[in-house]
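User: We ran a pulldown and think these components assemble together. Before we commit to crystallization trials, I'd like a predicted model of the whole complex to look at. Sequences follow.
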Amino acid sequence: MTERSQETLRVGVIGLGIMGRPMARNLARAGFAVTGFSRSRASIDAVADAGVSPGASLGTTIAGADVVVTMLPDTPDVVAVVRGEDGLLARAHPGVIWIDTSTIAPSMAGELAAEATRRGIRTLDAPVSGGESGAVAGTLTIMVGGDRATFEAAGPVLRAVGKTITYVGSSGHGQVTKLCNQVVAAGTLLAVGEGLVLAERAGLDTDAVLRALGAGAAASWMLENLGPRMLARDYRAGFFVDLQLKDLRLVAEEARRLALPLPGAALCEQLFRAVAAAGGGRLGTQALITALRRLAATGESIDPSPTRR
Amino acid sequence: MTERSQETLRVGVIGLGIMGRPMARNLARAGFAVTGFSRSRASIDAVADAGVSPGASLGTTIAGADVVVTMLPDTPDVVAVVRGEDGLLARAHPGVIWIDTSTIAPSMAGELAAEATRRGIRTLDAPVSGGESGAVAGTLTIMVGGDRATFEAAGPVLRAVGKTITYVGSSGHGQVTKLCNQVVAAGTLLAVGEGLVLAERAGLDTDAVLRALGAGAAASWMLENLGPRMLARDYRAGFFVDLQLKDLRLVAEEARRLALPLPGAALCEQLFRAVAAAGGGRLGTQALITALRRLAATGESIDPSPTRR
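Assistant: Here's a predicted model for the assembly, 618 residues in total across the polymer chains.
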């Protein structure tokens, strides 16, 4: 990697969903020679017009890259791309940097990093926060674990997709930091949702309530950005309920591994599950308030007759 | 009140605790003729040097005021000052404005306002947020319910103690808005605490975690201001656990009255109660994390022998 200038550094992006696609575009815009690959041919074609070369296969995309960036939905997807026949361990050149920007189980992130290191691959776990809008704007928050030297070497690539880039420690620590982020983000969203259902139920001027709360100790990114959408019942997705649920499952698994009770995070998971159970998995996380409204029986009335089924 | 200029407007402040004392000082600094009264003679003496006249009694303080400001700990204290023999209903002149900046039960706030109105007293419920530091700096957030004309008339007094002053609706609505504020503030604090105990337990660089989380969707006033104190185990009070518990009790009562389930707020109340049970009632609310650490058994070890008592 050090032999090539930034202009000709070849970056292979694996995973071209709502996050991977704009990241690939921003990397191309920053001057890297970007090849994109996805299981979906349509996704590959969709980035081609932004200066991203279509990858012919997973293996060739990896084999032709100095830096491999993965952005995949869940742990098994990353495992498949790393350990698969045509995957990273089989096809990457020694010295390649693999940056996993997916959010996956920290323990598996550590395992995969160890396997890759044995093949001479340098690894970073670098999950992101900021959602689709952050990916499009190139302003993602990136939490990076791995060797500090690898972190320094990957700087130009990370800066092409993110704004606040924090080195948090060794392999896997980026993933745990992301889980901490999700615990705080989900819990803050629940707090906002409960405050607003109380305001709705009490018949308050909810816009005035938002203004008053935003000025003091109750202020948060969630209150400012998703509070108004909750009140307007605008559930268009910045971040899917299904992905929030996946992250809270990873939190629960990690907390279990650490023997750590997290009652608030557990409550968040239950309520997001209620949103998904009602068909809201592809709504934005602000749809959490629909579960609170249903709890408050403003969603569905119950036939009080005990004999009705 | 309209016959006097702002310079000579007489303001009686009832309640000179950690909030009322700096508020009285700021009112005097703004040019009002301020008289302060408290059940504690020491508290009255403590504000005298700041241009606040000592009130001889509750009744004379009220009788000599154009505007009465109450800042008292809980609902019964306000009830006593309003309905007591020497209190507001008995001693206030018609046309006086009574501004209750205490946080009390919204239903009682409505009752007292109705009683005062029948005596020709104009009322505002105007609970504040911002804690001691906000009171000292005169930058409190004030959520005001009552007649809009009374709100306009009281503007100069409110602006002498607060910065963000929001009219939220009729009598009692200021109190409910404050409860919404407390639901969001306490829930956000729980979210921050859980994220940080996860970071501690996983052995992360907690300062790096704070930096990373503060840049994105997990950001909040609580994370920024109380997160570092949680990590530093600095529990000096900006806002007492005991007062947070009182506010969460008011939330629980109001939610019960509205038949509204608020599981997150209920969880917060339980955990703050655990802090108080352990002797932390006079610590700052950031001590919530001590209950989470105890849950995680990093506080006390259990003798596993079932026969030991």
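Chain A has two domains: 10-169, 177-295. That may be worth checking against your pulldown data before setting up trials.

User: Thanks, that helps.
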